[in-house]
Design brief:
Chain lengths: 440, 227
């Protein structure tokens, strides 16, 4: 039973295990939007509905989905659609829930988005770790082919769509859209230089629309019930509902679907139950591990793209990680940096070297071997990473680390002064296959 | 000879720039693509890889799935398995090795028959992920059949601390459950059935879940997939 503070659209009926099957899904009205779109709508009408809805990408950047789809050139060339199901950012686990509980909603969304993008081939790039979810998707895709929602001549409408579930093999960087394309082409997942953007030149050099699982799962609802209905939820600049992953120091970690704009306090304390008895929120990442941390002063802000940006952070993938008062911020900064260091593909210098040295310096801080000047060096390294990398992975470490050093500087200084911090053996960085041989 | 013969030949309309996509100077690659008769590829594996290649407009896209198939067959991406896949895919073994070595889940060294990945990222760390990793390491100590490793966020921070055991998720785990899981793996019993993620309800639907979401309240729910 949903919490009354939740607004379940994407997660409606998710408690019914039958929803995974095509009959279960159709029993709740599923695939009617696909029928409507394929039988009654032109490409431009679908595009207009998506643009009018104001749906913003749920994968991180928050770009208008309809607009992105409209950037694809028209013409005879082969076009592609890729659903980004790589979900590897620490703190994010909403796509897993959406695919596991309602795979057909995603398939229906992909089929309609393919109509909007005039794509004949679609792929779901799912992280290799999500094996159970990929099996569920495989079964659902087979059912959808069987029912004529995928394949040749869909619903007799002279349109074709092939959909392939493609399993990755464990590399966070493959969530970056151009690295995803390289991985899908069968290569090492290194990001590409942009422009050209994938909408113009993407998979196999053809125009490609790339959207997140949650973004695409919204599509059947928008096309079925209209842009106006969608705008009935959320705020002017952040319309719709959002599945928010809350984890870390809260009593009821999990996915909660809310109307965007709900105050953070209600999310963290209301829905997720807040920190354990006798503890308080010390800091939290509002949008996954790459978002600059916020402090309890900011708990009364509404949870929306615009409010998070104004507060100097971001809503990102919509994943809140709460640190309670027992968490050491320097250790958390180190954990964060270590992740990005491990996942850096090594292609460009500011990220490869910057993540490496940030980890080394933070290790010195928690060991008590640093000097206060090191904090300034850490801050300056982050400044030299931001905006200077080929993809946003470098910035994704630099932004939260700078925020932690700025907002909790006394705690870093204390760690250094006490010289008491000993390096936890778990913190020793293991070289990753991506950076092996590329980094000192 | 190009490291990939007939790149893009399946769909000649694809504007694939060979020099860009191969990462080598065309004509300078010395390694040969092995012939099928040289590699003694099991029939099943060959068929599987051919089916995988047929799913894509460009057969090279099947390289990760093909390596998964090799790993499924041999337990790891062995040099012999890679040569077999390379022969079927018409690419050089070095090409597939370069792909395999990029990804954390593809093993280019032999690992045991059971793989345990324990998450030590932020949310799991806050809830004892490091200790859980120690507990698994201790329980599996000296057993070559069990491969235990720390891992980055597995996308299941709601069940922190957690582990992925043979590609299935379990959590939230008690430290003592590491030993239980290892015993179950050894005896072939079902692993921690009550902790399997696939069986878990949504957070607010958990018994004793949200105080405000008691019986009978379906206030915020929309109902109907499409209205
Ligand atoms: C390092 C890195 C990792 C990313 N990982 C993901 C991911 O796992 N899932 C995702 O949807 N987007 C991810 N993104 C964002 C994608 O590049 C892309 O913006 C997104 O898939 C677009 O979909 P949307 O517009 O629907 O949000 C990542 C970006 C970067 C820079
Ligand atoms: S920023 Fe990092 S991950 Fe992105 S291309 Fe450069 S080295 Fe690779
Ligand atoms: S931090 Fe462990 S699963 Fe995300």
């Amino acid at each position: 039973m949903a919490d009354p503070r939740e607004t379940r659209v994407l997660l409606a009926n998710a408690e019914d295990p039958n929803l995974r099957t095509i009959d279960g899904y159709r029993g709740y009205g599923g695939y009617r939007s696909l029928e409507k779109a394929y039988r009654e709508m032109e490409q431009d009408e679908v595009l207009k509905e998506l643009e009018d809805s104001g749906l913003r990408g749920r994968g991180g950047a928050g770009f208008s989905m309809g607009k992105k789809a409209s950037f694809l050139p028209r013409g005879e060339m082969a076009k592609y659609l890729c659903c980004n199901a790589d979900e590897s950012e620490p703190g994010a686990f909403k796509d897993r829930e959406l695919m596991q509980r309602n795979p057909h909603q995603l398939i229906e969304g992909i089929a309609i988005a393919a109509l909007a993008a005039d794509a004949g081939h679609a792929f779901i790039f799912i992280r290799g770790e999500y094996d159970a979810q990929a099996d569920i998707l495989d079964a659902a895709v087979a059912e959808a082919y069987e029912a004529g929602y995928l394949g040749k001549n869909i619903l007799g409408c002279r349109r074709d769509l092939e959909l392939v579930v493609h399993r990755g093999a464990g590399a966070y960087i493959c969530g970056e859209e151009t690295a995803l394309l390289d991985a899908l082409e069968g290569k090492r997942g290194n990001p590409r230089l942009k422009p050209p953007f994938p909408a113009v030149q993407g998979l196999y050099g053809g125009p490609t629309l790339i959207n997140n699982v949650e973004t695409l799962s919204n599509v059947p609802h928008i096309v079925g019930k209209g842009a106006e209905w969608f705008r009935g939820y959320g705020t002017e600049q952040s319309p719709g509902t959002k599945v928010v992953s809350i984890s870390g120091g809260v009593r009821r970690p999990g996915n909660y679907e809310i109307s965007l704009g709900m105050p953070l306090r209600e999310l963290i304390y209301g829905l997720a139950g807040g920190p354990e008895e006798g503890h308080e929120v010390k800091a939290f990442y509002p949008g996954g591990s790459s978002s600059p941390v916020l402090t309890p002063n900011e708990l009364d802000l509404p949870y929306s793209f615009e409010a998070m940006a104004e507060a100097g952070s971001m809503l990102g993938s919509g994943s809140i990680i709460v640190a309670d008062d027992r968490v050491s911020i320097p250790h958390m900064a180190l954990r964060t940096a270590r992740f990005y260091h491990h996942e850096s593909c090594g292609k460009c210098t500011p990220c490869r070297e910057g993540t490496n040295w940030t980890v080394k310096m933070l290790e010195r801080v928690v060991r008590g071997e640093a000097t206060p000047m090191d904090l300034d060096i850490i801050a300056s390294v982050q400044k030299n990473i931001i905006g200077r990398c080929l993809c946003v992975l470098g910035d994704s470490m630099a932004m939260p680390v700078s925020a932690m050093v700025n907002k909790f500087r006394p705690e870093f200084e204390e760690a250094i002064a006490n010289a008491a911090g000993t390096l936890d053996p778990h913190l020793v960085v293991e070289a990753s296959p991506q950076t092996l041989g590329a980094s000192v | 000879m190009s490291p990939v013969d007939g790149a893009g030949a399946v769909n000649p309309k694809l504007p694939v720039d060979e020099a860009l996509t191969e990462g080598r100077v065309p004509g300078r690659a010395e390694e040969q693509i092995p012939e099928l008769h040289e590699v003694d590829c099991p029939e099943e594996l060959r068929e599987r890889i051919e089916t995988l290649m047929a799913r894509y407009p460009d057969r090279k896209s099947a390289s990760i799935p093909a390596l998964w198939a090799v790993q499924g067959r041999y337990g790891w991406c062995s040099p012999q398995g890679i040569r077999q896949a390379a022969a079927v895919m018409r690419v050089t073994p070095a090409y597939l090795e370069s792909v395999a070595s990029f990804y954390d889940l593809l093993h280019t060294k032999p690992v045991g028959s059971h793989r345990i990945e324990v998450c030590t990222n932020i949310s799991c760390w806050m809830r004892g992920g490091d200790e859980l990793l120690d507990a698994f390491r201790a329980a599996a100590e000296g057993d070559e059949d069990l491969f235990v490793t720390g891992f980055e966020c597995l996308g299941a921070c709601d069940i922190a601390p957690m582990a992925s055991i043979d590609q299935r998720y379990y959590g939230p785990l008690e430290m003592a459950e590491a030993a239980t899981a290892v015993e179950q793996l050894r005896s072939g019993a079902e692993v921690l059935p009550e902790k399997a993620l696939v069986e878990r309800p949504l957070a607010a639907d958990l018994p004793g879940g949200s105080p405000a979401g008691g019986a009978g309240s379906d206030g915020g729910s929309e109902g109907g997939a499409n209205g």
